[in-house]
Amino acid sequence: MSSEPTTLMEAIRYFADPDVALDTMVKLRWPNGVCCPTCGRTDVRFVKTRRVWECKEVHAKRQFSAKVGTVFEDSSLGLDKWFVAIWMVANCKNGVSSYEVHRAIGVTQKSAWFMLHRIRLAMQAGSLVKAEGHVEADETYVGGLAKNMHKDKREWVIKGTGGAGKTIVMGVLQRAEKDATSRVRARIIKETTKATLHAEVRAAVKPGSHLHTDAAKGYRGLSDDFKHGVVDHAVEYVRGNVHTNGLENFWSLLKRGLKGTYVSVEPYHLFRYLDEQVFRFNERGDNDYGRFQSVLSWVTGIRLTWSELVGSGSEVIA
Ligand SMILES: [Zn+2]
């Protein structure tokens, strides 16, 4: 067990052993020992032949697998397949398509697509910590033209000057300090009004932090709660330490990833791709096994059904 995988090929071989896969899951999910998800009892019996546990308390769902209460719960796919898919999402630099997962682990493309979206949902959990210190805030426009989208999706795009037909992404970046690398949090927003931008900043940044933005009107009026530095991009891009270069760098990585990997990203699904890029950026200082473990540690307690995921009138994309 000492040789943790370092490549996708090694990961496939490593997790092909059901005992190794289960052991990996148990160590992350129950670091203090297995306990019953229903009643919390810890003196549970392991049924070796079926790789499930049985609770001594008499209640419904006495027998439980390691998948219960996680995004894997109602999936018939084995942990070996899930873990390889997680490995790919966590470690493929420019994102991974459902087609690639379908080929790598031998599930249908529809299953692969569903797996990917569940994994991305788990990744959201990793970027919800409020930023502090020196923080940059900025927005960017991504995506295609509105005329190519269905009517119900046009609501997700804006029709303002300069960004017509594109989706707006709002980002907050906590600059690097001491040993920690810079961290990003990014979300899709519907408009760049003062109300929206202020709400996003307040939700993502601790009061009292140094806030760096451009001169957009939507950011005015934040200096009561933040040490607000403004750089007017019509004049200059850097004024002392006031700039949004960290976020500019993230935006270009994001756009390169979207361009290189996905044929089309509908606004409806874009936020999940965004989460994936944010995760990879924030975990860039870790190695492949570390990133895999981060995602796996977040899957517990998060569930998503097929109907919740696809919504209404949405089609499956690559
Ligand atoms: Zn129990």
What structural keywords apply?
Nucleotidyltransferase, domain 5; disordered C terminus; single chain; 38% helix; five-stranded mixed sheet; 11 helices; alpha/beta; three-stranded antiparallel sheet; 318 residues; binds zinc ion
Summarize the model shown.
With 318 residues, this protein is of the alpha/beta class. Helices cover 38% and strands 13% of the residues. The chain has two domains: 8-126 and 301-306, no CATH class; 130-272, Ribonuclease H-like superfamily/Ribonuclease H (Nucleotidyltransferase, domain 5), CATH 3.30.420.10.
How much of the polypeptide forms β-strand, as a percent range? Answer: 5-15%
Could you tell me the number of beta strands?
8
The CATH topology of the largest domain comes to: Nucleotidyltransferase, domain 5
**CATH homologous superfamily identity of the largest domain:** Ribonuclease H-like superfamily/Ribonuclease H
State the helix count.
11
Task: Name the shape in a single word.
Answer: elongated
Descriptive notes:
The protein has 318 residues and is an alpha/beta fold. It has two domains: 8-126 and 301-306, no CATH class; 130-272, Nucleotidyltransferase, domain 5. Helix content is 38%, strand content 13%. The strands form two sheets. A five-stranded mixed beta sheet has the order 6-5-4-7-8, with helices on both faces. A three-stranded antiparallel beta sheet has the order 1-2-3, with no helix packed on it. A hairpin with an 8-residue loop joins strand 5 (167-174) and strand 6. Helix 3 (79-91) packs across helix 5, helix 3 (79-91) packs across helix 10 and helix 4 packs across helix 5. The relative contact order is 0.15. The structure holds zinc ion. Residues 36, 38-39, 41, 55, 57, 59 line the site of zinc ion.
